[in-house]
Amino acid sequence: MSLHIPKEPQEVKAWIAHLESLSGPSTDIKWENLNVWYGNKLPQYLWHEWKNELKPQGFTWQKFSRLLRMRTDKMVGWFKGLNSWQTLAEDIRDLLESPLGQDIAKK
Fold it and tell me: Which 3 state secondary structure label does DSSP give 7?
């Protein structure tokens, strides 16, 4: 399985930025984690791009989401500008193709 790197979803990044602007400062809540998952915009975008290749491997939306949660920190890093879209997409692709990803797909 060799997944392509989709175009960077600027509209998703703008959505997360909007949510970030609405989040109040807090020391006990990690808003950025919630913001990258709110509405599942980023996971839905990636699933839409990759589902035709992932479904034959055994992935469902639920399995994909469960695995993607392991990269929340990388998703926040992309949104905050700490890493590139290319880096994030490659990291997620590598996780999907890893033994852990393949194990989750088979269950």
Answer: coil
Q: pLDDT tens for residues 53-81?
A: 999 999 999 999 999 999 999 999 998 89
The two structure tokens encoding residue 75: 């998703």
The amino acid occupying position 46 is L
| pTM attached to this predicted model | 0.85
Nearest-10 Cα torsion for 54, 76, 71, 64:
-30
Rounded to 5°, angle at Cα 17 from 11 and 22: 130
User: Strands (DSSP E) along 1-107, which ranges?
Assistant: none
Length of the chain: 107
